[in-house]
């Protein structure tokens, strides 16, 4: 398994099939438009390749907040269903934990959907704990 940090829109667009595992409605146009807004804000991705095929990825950001100081946030951790329970998520998480340490971050953070119980179990098993609730207010009906 090989890990690669990617930082360009062209590289990220190649990961659309993995992104569609979580967001099946995304087209290249939708994904590209979102990347255009995210990339200037220090968004990057870590991709896991097996035999040159992308099998998992995690977006990530580094920022600073009052409550925690400098942090690294995992964003949309995705492992292809055919490659789950093979250590891909662990590899991505451990790499980004070490990156956070190397960058002097105080916290690694992430959001997980409330109904995604397998993800909750995975994150608990890897040292993450709930600190609060991430509240959202939808301003438009989908």
From TrEMBL:
So which domain of life are we looking at?
Answer: Bacteria
Which residue range or ranges hold the N-acetyltransferase domain? 1-142
Which molecular function term from Gene Ontology is one that the record holds? acyltransferase activity, transferring groups other than amino-acyl groups
Q: Which UniProt keywords apply?
A: Acyltransferase, Transferase
The answer to keyword Nucleotide-binding applying to this record is no
From which source organism is this entry? Flavobacterium lacus
This chain's protein is named Acetyltransferase (GNAT) family protein
* PROSITE patterns, sorted: GNAT
């Amino acid at each position: 398994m090989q890990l690669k940090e990617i930082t360009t829109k062209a590289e990220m667009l190649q990961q659309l099939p993995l992104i569609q595992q979580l967001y099946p409605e995304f087209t290249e146009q939708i994904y590209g438009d979102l990347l255009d807004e995210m990339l200037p804000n220090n968004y990057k991705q870590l991709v896991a390749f097996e035999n040159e095929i992308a099998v998992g990825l995690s977006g990530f950001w580094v920022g600073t907040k009052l409550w925690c100081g400098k942090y690294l946030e995992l964003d949309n951790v995705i492992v292809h269903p055919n490659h789950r329970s093979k250590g891909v998520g662990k590899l991505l998480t451990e790499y980004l934990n070490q990156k956070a340490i190397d960058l002097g971050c105080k916290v690694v953070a992430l959001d997980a959907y409330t109904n995604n119980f397998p993800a909750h179990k995975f994150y608990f098993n890897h040292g993450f704990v709930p600190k609060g609730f991430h509240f959202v207010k939808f301003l438009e009906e989908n």
